[in-house]
Amino acid sequence: MSIPTIAFFNAQGGVGKTSLVYHLAWMYDNLGLRVVAADIDPQANLTAMFLNEERLEQLWPDEEHPLTLFGCVQPLKKGIGDIAAPHLEYIKMSPEEAELFPTNEEPTPLALLPGDLSLSGFEDHLSEAWLKCLTGDKHSFLVTSAFWRIMQNAAHAHQADLILMDLGSNLGAISRPALIAADYLVVPLVPDLSSLQGLRNLGPTRRRWQAEWNERLRHDPAKNLELPSGSMHPLGYMVMQHVERLHRPARVFQKWIARIPGAYRTYLLDESGNSDISVKEDPHCLSLLRNYGSLMPLAYEARKPIFHLKVADGAIGAHFKAAQQAYKDFKQLALRIAEKVGAIPK
Fold it and tell me: Three-state DSSP class for 234?
C-alpha cells in the first residue's frame, strides 16, 4: 500500500514553498503523525534548513553521495542496477522543545530524505527515459518511477503516515517525474503577477503530463513493476500574505488576491466558476497565512520552526506572541490538509 504523497509546487519561485514544507513537517511531528520530508529540489534548500553545515559537508562530499537522493539514483544513472536503499536523516526536537508538547510523550523524530546539489546531473537521463517509455523499455520505466519508489521505500521504512515533497520552481525534466509521483498537489501562492503566472503555466502542464503518463503506462513491459498513478490531485492553494514592498501600500496587492480564486479554477482545475468569490470564502483556499518574515531570521539562527521559538531564542514581546500565533495558523493548515488526504492525527 502506497503512502500518501503531497507535492508543494508552483512553477514560479519566491512563494515560500520550502519554508511551508519545513514548517508543516514539524507541525505534523508535533501532532503525532510520522512524516518523511523529501527534498527533490536540485537546490536542496529544504535539506539546508534541516541540517547544519557540518552535516551537509558529510552528505555532500567531493566524490560519491551515497546518503542523498542523488546517491539513490546512481545505479540507474550508471546503468548498473536499480535504485539504492534510501538513507533518512532523523530530526529530533530538543528536550526544551518537547516540553512544549506534553501530549506527545515520546516524540517521534521526523525523517528527511536529503536532497543534493548534484541531482541536476540526473536530468538528461530523465528526459531520455521519458521518451523511451513509449517504446516499452523497462529501464526507462525504472528511471521515470525512481523518485516515487525511493520515497515510498523511505516512507515504509519510517512507517510514515505522509510524504511531504519539496520541488524546484520549474517545469523541467526533474519536476515531471516528481509531480507524477504525487498523489496530491498543494500550490503555494503570493499575491502578485508572477505567482499567478506560475498557475497559468502549471495547470495545462499538469494535465498534459498526466495524460502522457497514462499513455506510457499502457506500454509498461513489466506488469509486476509498481508505478505511480500520476494522479496529482489538486488539493488546494494557500496564500502567503504580503508585506509592504518598495514603499508601495499593501492595498496595491489586493487586486492580485482578488484574482487568485478565479485563476486557480481556470488554470489549474480547467473549469469556469464564480470568479468573484474572495480568497477567504473560497473552498479551494487551504489557508491565508500571515507573513512571519520578522521571525524567520530567528528561526534560521535557532534551526527550528518559528512556532518553536522561545524567549531564549530572541522571541521577545511581539515576536513571542507572533510565534504562538504561528503555531495556531500552521496547526489549522496541517489539520485541514490531513483531513483531505485521510491522515488524521492519532
Answer: strand
Each residue's pLDDT tens digit, 214-226? 999 999 988 788 9
Q: Cell 541531482: give the residue.
A: 119
pLDDT band at residue 246 using 50, 70 and 90 as cut-offs: very low
- Note whether 236 and 260 are within 8 A (CB): no
Q: Strands 110-113 and 89-91: what pairing? A: antiparallel
Q: Which residues contact 168 (CB under 8 A, 6 or more apart)?
A: 40, 41, 42, 43, 174, 175
Where are the domains positioned within the chain?
5-296
Q: What is the pTM of this model?
A: 0.93
The per-residue pLDDT for range 252-275, each reduced to its tens digit, is: 678 889 999 999 999 999 987 666
Cell numbers for 153 = 521505500
User: Which residues does residue 151 pair with via DSSP β-bridges, in sequence order?
Assistant: none
Domain spanning 5-296: CATH 3.40.50.300:
yes
DSSP states of 218-231: TT-S-TTS------
